[in-house]
Amino acid sequence: MTTRRQQIQSNDEPIVVGLDIGYGVVKAVTGRQTVIFPSVWGYAMNLRYQAAEIAAKYPGDEIRDEDGVWWIGEKAQSQLRVGEVRRLRGRTADERAMGHTQRLRLAKVALGKLLLGQQGGTTWDIRLATGLPVDHMPGAGQFKEVLSGRHLVQTDRTNLVANITDVMVMPQPYGTIYRHQLTDRGLLNKNHTADRTGVIDIGTYSIDAALDDDGEFIDSASGSVEAGVFTAQEIIERAYESDHGQKPSYRDVETVLRTGFVRVKGTLEDYSDVRQQAIEPLIAATLNLMNDKWGTAANIDVIYIAGGGASMVAEEIQNIYPQAQLVENSQMSNAQGYFNYAMFTQSEADFEEDEAVYEAPPPPVRNAPVAVAPPPAPDPAPAVVEPESAVQTAVEEPTPAEDDSAEDPSAEEPAPTPPKRRSSSSSSSSSSSSRSRSKKTTSEPSDE
Hints:
- The strands form three sheets. Strands 1-4-3-2-9-11-10-6-7-5-8 form an eleven-stranded mixed sheet, sandwiched between helices.
- Strand 16 and strand 17 form a beta hairpin.
- Helix 3 packs across helix 4, helix 5 crosses helix 10 and helix 6 runs antiparallel to helix 8.
- The protein has two domains: 171 residues, Nucleotidyltransferase, domain 5, CATH 3.30.420; 220 residues, ATPase, nucleotide binding domain (Nucleotidyltransferase, domain 5), CATH 3.30.420.
- It is an alpha+beta fold.
């Protein structure tokens, strides 16, 4: 599914993308649009009927690479048999050869959907921010290496080169932290006043906890467990197969998790008891991780509940941790935060570049001497009148003294007016703002 606020039309400047490649769902965010699709794939097949109509229904869900032609996301779920659908499942024996390779394929599909319709092999520069489960962060360097560089993106709707010039990798829950600490313009969010912020992120195959102390990542209070929504999915699958003699589709399982009902042979069946039984292990695993990392969380100001499984466990978490809040649109929270952080680093880079180009002018001289005009010359003395018998001599009046202070070279001129392009006060304010921003985000993603 792609939500468009404004179609991307130009590649004059790098595109900033927040990309969350979850085990269950891929989410991508730019300043203009969002993309979300299931993290599943399988080899494409020849359809015997309605091929064009089905392709139009799932635009961008087919990709070609060196390993073949693949159906991705909703098209794979709809058209492939259950056993033909592949998905990410935690760590692999060779993470680089398998896990990260599959993540790259999913990343290329996401970029193809964001740039849907772009053809001709045009190169698009991209700055990408993404995340890994907390306990997988030692592999961030490999992941960054796999994503960086030029990648050919050939889908059923797109043919372009994605030139990923910058990759930022962080612990997944930090996306939710940056969603609240920063705005989508990369500025500090003044409404976020907490100093110690915790996030519990309930995903498909992992549950992650992270603690931020005024911009500092607290490693000892952060971690992951290999659990998640999949435990609930497996319980529902077993119950359905026991009742009806076949495995349910992924959509049917998701429907039970969302509503507690599923349609069987045209009739809705109540699976609410099965659903409640299925989420109990998820609740237990989540609370165990929070207790292990945070104890009673008495010193944590706010706890954000995020991830695709957030709504399933929020009530139980809030009963124990009253400062916990269910994040709005929790499934997209990390991707939005990744985008916010990438915008923040861009604004910091722009500020430093401005500082290098424009130097603040010197402050005006406060006590500069002011030139003062001399006082006017006194009136000339009156002419002396001689007696009538004497010879009267005309007395020539003296010429008044000229005011030549304006041309007096000894008089100091007033101090010059500073350039309007950048004043000393604005430079000081900008520097202060930069320091304030840096204080809140001193924990930077891995740049290995």
